């Protein structure tokens, strides 16, 4: 391989390669590259219709084969008894590369066609046979049921025995049609029609008949208990036997016509009981024969299916691969003499040697070192990092759970989340194989980050000293509460201890708890926010270095940094300083930092001495304000000016620029293949620059971009800092909600005295726990998740992230859905 | 008012149908389709559209009939989905759409029976949207009275047939008269129903239905030249709605040749261009007629497209069905041209978008 290990910070080094492949080995070469799975081919003929490309014929052939294979697999699926399908890893691989490839494909094609033909034939005969069986069964039912009608109708009439042409050809439809039964007329005048009809149609049938015959009929029908199963579709139909008595040929003809058009089947029934029993015997005999034949056909069909099942998987595999290969080949260009194919594609630079090896058709296929993919795709859903850009996803691995935890700080809730994530990780292998559904699947996919979120929440919970809204007493509290006073208001006394870590539990339950915690969390969120933004801003720097854009460093990065630090950095320092001063012993009142910041803008240079934070404050503030004020025009003007100067320089030299040096938002790079990439992406800029008036466009674009950028940044600094206050708001809401939940459910029942109280305690305990999990951990967790996401996407990413890239999707044979 | 409450019941379905509409083939799809060399190419092209893989599992020599059937099947499935999710009054509205197909099916069955075709074959040829339970029994009837009493009386079409009970014998001319009488009654009823819904539905639908009525009027007039249909009878077949009604209808009832039809149509601005440049060559009537037919279809497509411009109304459902039908006609036409190698006429379809 290569010495470089893939880094998480930046994307893989890519190279644009051009392959010249002789036509005869193109197929094999692509197959080889597909096995490697790290080349992304470019479409070299985007203007050609899909069906006008070179390999359409092959694709169509493969499609046809695919259709056959699909036909087999649906046939196998429909089979009631499970037909064994040999898994892919077990079957002998079909070789479709190398010199014998075309023959192998031809053979496969022939095999598939033969199998299909045999299978359809068997299906047909099977279907025909089942159809006949069905008819016979129906006939049997009709015979039996009509017997009942007749018995009722004329049990007292003399039963005559006579032998009719009992070989009523049940199997010959046409004959039967003619031989619809008309009563023998000897002892029984009424004529009738008998048959079967689908049960759902019976009411309509009856109604229509009644109307057509104006009520001149007697109809009787009974249900056939067992359903009829269609051999092809497997659908069940339920049928009824009917017998209709009517008088006159015209009426009977009408009945038959209606019955036929309603989808009924008519059977010839003799009015004579003996004849009926005769034909019943006959039918049963035939039925038995037929069922034997049917069984044989079924079993031979099954054998065929089993044979297919043995190689079905490898066929599917081959067909899928072949289709992919030809689709890829369609992306290639023929050279002028149509002897070689030209392919272009993106390749990770590290893997070039592997690919060269593969192309040389080395028999030893060195497995490609697949880039290490992170489980953290949070940033990718915002935008894929541009080529070689610093990937913020790497840092989000830690910052994201941390910001989440700041809002979700509670040891208990953090622990629940942690345990859930731990379970998912430990049961990873098992869970990965089951389909978890959309929602659970999402959680499972993010199990590692949930684990971290749980861990960090436990940490911040320790900081806030919150466990299910209660406090932990680990060390001595700094406050003593005298218990012997009778006052309604107890004032804590400072006993000189300092709580070693986190919030002093003495605050818990105090009247001014909320005031204290609010101020603490609010300031903390501002501090965290400024640190996070500063960090995000700093990520610009490696980008500018990497892409050799020194202009951007001193026209963008430095003024932005100064602007941010001189206002908000200063605020953070003031917050920290204010915390470190013991105001109970100071001469001045503790100043309000918010007012200080506001008056820093409104009345620069003046600070009320009673609210002064430190000596020399007015001077420092004026200097900082001036610095920030300078940064705005600096940011606004420098880059457009440089671009303008550049343009002039080029014009003076008489050149017409093709690729503008100082491109607006700095996406543009100078190395040649990146220009190519720009063109390939089809982004309008690269094309616009080819035009004659490219410079004017370009310059205007730079100006507009920079104006927008400046305004966005300066206003953004203020609003983004304010936006980080959501850390405070959410953590406050979380703490309050869990406290309310505690006091509303459990608190009142904590000291049970009798059995009833115990029961209530248990019920309440369960109730409390369920609510904790669903409301506090899931709902609140989701809201904290969303807010943390927003802080990353909006507040942090806007400082540096371009995200104009697209993911690398190489040609690969690895099956995307592994379930097959 | 509709804007306030329409979405309670109709919002989801309107959204669905607008989504379906987005899948109607566009000009560039047609451009690709017309370039196909064979029906397999055609299938490949269609698989890139919303039709998807609807032909993927068909064994290879594909017939144009299969294509039309499968495409219709998709439309029917979509319609059934809409119908199953609809509540009053939309469900009634959708039912009204199916009545047209039912009328066609009834006429098809009667005609088929008259010419002694196989009933099952006839039933298979019926439009799936117009199938009703007792439909197969139609082939028993030998006169209108019987037809009505035995089958139609329980269908929603019964009121429409009441007017034509007088025609006793079933022959080709009578069937044609029945068809037109029934269709006239249906159109008037649908028109009134849309009017009762009020609001934008009435605006949009009555515009479309007026055109439909006028188209029928003109067609009936032209087709009845030189036949045994008397002018009184002809007048009775004209729907009593539409923009030509009543003066135009009266004049058309008396018309004897195509120039009179033209002069009537020229009274309505939108219809003026139907006969616009066919004026000189009045000798070849068939040319004018086929051109007229095309223009009718174009206007219909145009009106149906306009229906999508207005929200909170049911016209979109009707318009979608009509547009989709036109699209199926188009792809069938193209497929037919490809199959019969008649490339010169392949462009004679009516583009929708």
Note down, in words, how this protein is organized.
The complex is a heterodimer of chains A (820) and B (353). Chain A is of the alpha+beta class and 820 residues long. Chain A has 3 domains: 14-120 and 300-375, no CATH class; 123-154 and 189-296, Alpha-Beta Plaits, CATH 3.30.70; 390-652 and 699-799, no CATH class. In chain A, 58% of the residues lie in helices and 7% in strands. Chain A is built from 23 helices and 12 strands. Chain A has helices at 23-36, 56-78, 101-153, 173-178, 202-212, 249-261, 273-329, 352-359, 392-408, 411-426, 428-433, 437-445, 447-464, 513-538, 540-546, 550-580, 593-602, 617-652, 672-681, 684-688, 694-723, 725-745, 755-800, and strands at 14-22, 40-41, 191-198, 218-223, 228-229, 236-237, 239-246, 265-267, 333-334, 340-348, 479-480, 493-494. In chain A, strands 1, 2, 9 and 10 form a 4-stranded antiparallel beta sheet that branches. Chain A is extended. The two termini of chain A are 32 Å apart. Residues 156-187, 362-376, 659-694 and 816-820 of chain A have low confidence and may be disordered. Chain B has 353 residues and is an all-alpha fold. Chain B has one domain (2-340). Chain B is 64% helix and 0% strand. Chain B is built from 16 helices and no strands. The two termini of chain B are 31 Å apart. The mean pLDDT of chain B is 84. Classes of the chains: A alpha+beta (820), B mainly alpha (353). Chain A binds chain B through residues 49-52, 56, 60, 63-64, 67, 70-71, 201, 204, 207-208, 211-212, 254, 257-258, 260-263, and chain B through 32, 35-37, 40-41, 44-45, 48, 56-57, 59-60, 119-120, 123, 133-134, 136-140, 146, 149-151, 153-154. Chain B: It comes from Lentinula edodes. Chain B: This is V-type proton ATPase subunit. Chain B: Keywords: Hydrogen ion transport, Ion transport, Transport. Chain B: GO terms for molecular function: proton-transporting ATPase activity, rotational mechanism. Chain B: Belongs to the V-ATPase V0D/AC39 subunit family.
């Amino acid at each position: 391989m290569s010495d470089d290990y893939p880094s998480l910070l930046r994307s893989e080094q890519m190279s644009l390669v051009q392959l010249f492949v002789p036509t005869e080995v193109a197929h094999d070469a692509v197959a080889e590259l597909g096995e490697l799975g790290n080349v992304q081919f470019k479409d070299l003929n985007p203007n050609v219709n899909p069906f006008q490309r070179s390999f359409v014929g092959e694709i169509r052939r493969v499609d046809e084969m695919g259709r056959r294979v699909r036909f087999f697999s649906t046939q196998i699926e429909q089979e009631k008894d499970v037909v064994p399908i040999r898994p892919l890893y077990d079957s002998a691989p079909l070789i479709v590369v190398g010199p014998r490839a075309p023959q192998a494909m031809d053979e496969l094609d022939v095999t598939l066609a033969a199998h299909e033909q045999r299978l359809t034939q068997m299906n047909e005969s099977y279907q025909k046979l089942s159809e006949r069986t069905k008819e016979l069964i129906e006939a049997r039912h009709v015979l039996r049921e009509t017997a009942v009608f007749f018995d009722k109708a004329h049990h007292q009439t003399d039963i005559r025995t006579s032998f009719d042409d009992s070989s009523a050809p049940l199997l010959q439809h046409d004959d039967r049609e003619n031989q619809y039964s008309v009563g023998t007329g000897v002892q029984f005048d009424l004529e009738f029609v008998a048959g079967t009809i689908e049960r759902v149609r019976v009411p309509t049938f009856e109604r229509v008949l009644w109307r057509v015959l104006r009520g001149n009929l007697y109809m009787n029908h009974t249900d056939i208990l067992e359903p009829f199963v269609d051999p092809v579709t497997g659908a069940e139909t339920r049928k009824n036997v009917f017998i209709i008595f009517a008088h006159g040929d015209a009426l009977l003809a009408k009945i038959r016509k209606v019955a036929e058009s309603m989808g009924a089947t008519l059977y010839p029934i003799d009015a004579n009981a003996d004849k009926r029993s005769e034909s019943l015997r006959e039918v049963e005999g035939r039925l038995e024969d037929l069922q034997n034949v049917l069984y044989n056909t079924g079993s031979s069909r099954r054998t065929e299916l089993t044979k297919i099942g043995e190689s079905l998987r490898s066929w599917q595999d081959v067909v899928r691969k072949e289709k992919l290969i030809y689709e890829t080949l369609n992306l290639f260009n023929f050279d002028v003499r149509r002897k070689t194919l030209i392919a272009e594609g993106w390749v990770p630079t590290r893997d070039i040697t592997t690919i060269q090896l593969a192309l040389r058709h080395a028999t030893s296929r060195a497995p490609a070192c697949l880039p290490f993919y992170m489980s953290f795709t949070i940033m990718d859903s915002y935008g894929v990092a541009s080529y070689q850009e610093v990937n913020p996803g790497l840092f989000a691995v830690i910052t994201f759970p941390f910001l989440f935890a700041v809002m979700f700080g509670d040891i208990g809730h953090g622990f629940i989340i942690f345990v859930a994530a731990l379970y998912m990780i430990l049961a990873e292998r098992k869970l990965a194989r089951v389909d978890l559904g959309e929602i659970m699947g999402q959680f499972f996919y993010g199990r590692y980050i949930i684990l971290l979120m749980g861990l960090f929440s436990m940490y911040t919970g320790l900081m806030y000293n919150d466990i299910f809204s209660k406090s932990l007493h680990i060390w001595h509290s700094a406050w003593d509460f005298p218990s012997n006073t009778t006052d309604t208001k107890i004032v804590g006394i400072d006993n000189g201890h300092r709580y070693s870590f986190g919030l002093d539990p003495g605050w818990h339950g105090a009247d001014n708890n909320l005031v204290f915690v609010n101020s603490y969390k609010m300031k903390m969120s501002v501090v965290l926010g400024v640190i996070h933004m500063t960090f995000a801003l700093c990520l610009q720097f490696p980008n500018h270095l990497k892409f050799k854009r020194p202009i951007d460093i001193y026209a963008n990065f430095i003024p932005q940094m100064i602007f941010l630090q001189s206002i908000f950095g200063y605020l953070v320092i003031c917050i920290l300083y204010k915390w470190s001063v013991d105001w109970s012993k100071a001469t001045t009142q503790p100043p309000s930092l918010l007012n200080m910041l506001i008056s820093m803008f409104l009345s620069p240079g003046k600070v009320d001495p009673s609210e002064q934070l430190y000596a020399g404050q007015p001077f420092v503030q004026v200097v900082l304000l001036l610095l920030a004020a300078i940064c705005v025009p600096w940011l606004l003007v420098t880059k457009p000016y440089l671009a303008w100067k550049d343009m002039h320089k080029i014009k003076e030299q008489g050149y017409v620029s093709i690729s503008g040096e100082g491109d607006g938002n700095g996406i543009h790079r100078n190395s040649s293949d990146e220009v190519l990439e720009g063109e390939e992406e089809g982004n309008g800029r690269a094309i616009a620059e080819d035009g004659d008036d490219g410079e004017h466009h370009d310059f205007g674009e730079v100006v507009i971009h920079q104006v927008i950028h400046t305004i966005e940044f300066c206003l953004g600094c203020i609003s983004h800092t304010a936006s980080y206050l959501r850390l405070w708001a959410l953590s406050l809401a979380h703490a309050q909600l869990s406290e309310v939940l505690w006091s509303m459910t459990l608190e009142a029942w904590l000291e049970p005295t009798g059995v009833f109280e115990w029961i209530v305690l248990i019920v309440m305990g369960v109730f409390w726990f369920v609510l904790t999990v669903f409301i506090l951990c899931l709902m609140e967790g989701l809201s904290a998740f969303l807010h943390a996401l927003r802080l990353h996407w909006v507040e942090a990413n806007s400082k540096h992230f371009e995200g104009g890239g697209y993911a690398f999707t190489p040609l690969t044979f690895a099956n995307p859905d592994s379930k097959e | 008012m509709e804007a306030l409450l329409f979405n309670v019941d109709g919002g989801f379905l309107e959204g669905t149908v607008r989504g379906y509409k987005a899948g109607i083939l566009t000009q560039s799809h047609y451009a690709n389709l017309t370039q196909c060399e064979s029906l397999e190419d055609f299938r490949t092209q269609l698989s890139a559209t919303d039709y998807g893989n609807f032909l993927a599992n068909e064994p290879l020599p594909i017939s144009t009939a299969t294509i039309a059937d499968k495409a219709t099947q998709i439309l029917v499935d979509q319609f059934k989905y809409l119908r199953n999710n609809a509540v009053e009054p939309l469900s009634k509205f959708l039912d009204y759409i199916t009545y047209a197909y039912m009328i066609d099916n009834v006429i098809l069955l009667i005609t088929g029976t008259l010419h002694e075709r196989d009933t099952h074959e006839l039933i298979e040829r019926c439009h799936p949207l117009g199938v009703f339970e007792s439909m197969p029994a139609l082939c028993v009837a030998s006169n209108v009275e019987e037809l009505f009493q035995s089958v139609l009386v329980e269908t929603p079409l019964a009121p429409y047939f009441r007017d034509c009970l007088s025609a006793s014998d079933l022959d080709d001319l009578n069937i044609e008269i029945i068809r037109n009488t029934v269709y006239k009654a249906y159109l008037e009823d649908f028109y009134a129903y849309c009017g009762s819904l009020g609001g934008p539905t009435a605006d949009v639908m009555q515009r479309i239905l007026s055109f439909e009525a006028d188209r029928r009027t003109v067609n009936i007039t032209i087709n009845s030249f030189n036949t045994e249909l008397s002018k009184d009878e002809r007048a009775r077949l004209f729907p009593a709605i539409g923009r030509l009604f009543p003066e135009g209808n009266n004049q058309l009832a008396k018309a004897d040749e195509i120039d009179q039809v033209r002069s009537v149509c020229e009274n309505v601005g939108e219809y003026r261009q139907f006969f616009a440049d066919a004026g000189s060559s009045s000798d070849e009537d068939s040319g004018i007629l086929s051109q007229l037919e095309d223009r009718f279809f174009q206007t219909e497509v145009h009106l149906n497209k306009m229906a999508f411009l207005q929200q909170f109304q049911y016209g979109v459902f009707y318009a979608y069905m009509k547009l989709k039908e036109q699209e199926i006609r188009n792809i069938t036409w193209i497929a037919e041209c490809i199959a019969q190698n008649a490339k010169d006429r392949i462009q004679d379809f009516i583009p929708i978008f």
